[in-house]
Amino acid sequence: MTYTHAITVPLSWQDAVDRTRGALAEQGFGVLTEIDVKETFARKLGQEAGDAVGDYIILGACNPQLAQRGIAAEPQLGALLPCNVVVRRAPDAKETTIEAIDPQTMVQLSPGDATREVANDADGRLQAALKEISEKAGS
Length: 139
Known about the structure:
Layout: E1 4-9, H1 13-26, E2 30-36, H2 37-45, H3 47-53, E3 55-62, H4 64-73, E4 83-89, E5 96-101, H5 104-109, H6 113-138
Antiparallel strand pairs: 1-5, 2-3, 3-4, 4-5
């Protein structure tokens, strides 16, 4: 089972992070949380663990209108929010991978019509953001 949409682009780490933030913003998503996995691993598990994971950040993206619609329809849906977007680059890699959660996983857990509508909207927006990053990376 695949539960993410992913692209791999020939962008530097920082450029990929910046473009991801910009593309998410254009689709109405703000970044509520940010987890620097490399830094966290280094601090909690040692520098070797941080270096092994490479550059790896988790952005907790939220579109307030979609979140409001989903929570209003099903309050427990908040446990599945925000939509996580990962930007990662292995040590010595030449490309960066960007992955977004596939909101259709929400529908598998809660198949109600309102959840499906929110998931479809979020899915379209996240895929549009990935497409924008991919297209601009090629130019």
